[in-house]
Write a structure and sequence with these properties.
It contains one helix and six strands. It is mainly beta. The protein has a single domain, classed as OB fold (Dihydrolipoamide Acetyltransferase, E2P) (Beta Barrel). The protein has a five-stranded mixed β-barrel with strand order 1-3-4-6-5. The chain is globular. The N and C termini lie far apart (about 45 Å). The relative contact order is 0.25. The mean pLDDT is about 90.
């Protein structure tokens, strides 16, 4: 049996991508994608939003840095990477990122 690590998200950029060059010369970009859902019960309606850190390398990073802006809607696919820092032998500062493998740009988000 093969394992599967795949993340699929559809959301809105909350910041412009931050791009850098790695020491190897390869492009690197990072941005935050906000996804959300609305819930309703008998007394109220609420909205929950989650922020996801998306990291791209190489050509995808160059495309993200050049064409994506805050407020754009995008569909992303990637794999989940969890970073764990260590402090006194215990895991601390756990951080999840989506390492981008596919990107579809959908344009500006419409106003609700």
């Amino acid at each position: 049996m093969t394992d599967l690590n795949k993340v699929t998200l559809l959301g809105t950029l909350s910041i412009d991508p931050i791009s850098r060059k790695m020491p190897s010369g390869s492009a690197y970009a990072r941005f935050t994608l906000v996804t959300g859902y609305t819930w309703k019960d008998a007394k109220k309606i609420g909205r929950v939003e989650d922020g996801h850190t998306i990291v791209a390398f190489g050509k995808l990073a160059e495309i993200a840095a050049q064409y994506l802006k805050k407020g754009d809607r995008v569909y992303v696919e990637g794999r989940l990477k969890t970073w764990k820092g260590r402090e006194s032998g215990q895991a601390r500062n756990v951080r999840n990122e989506v390492l981008l493998t596919n990107l579809i740009m959908l344009g500006k988000a419409s106003k609700p």
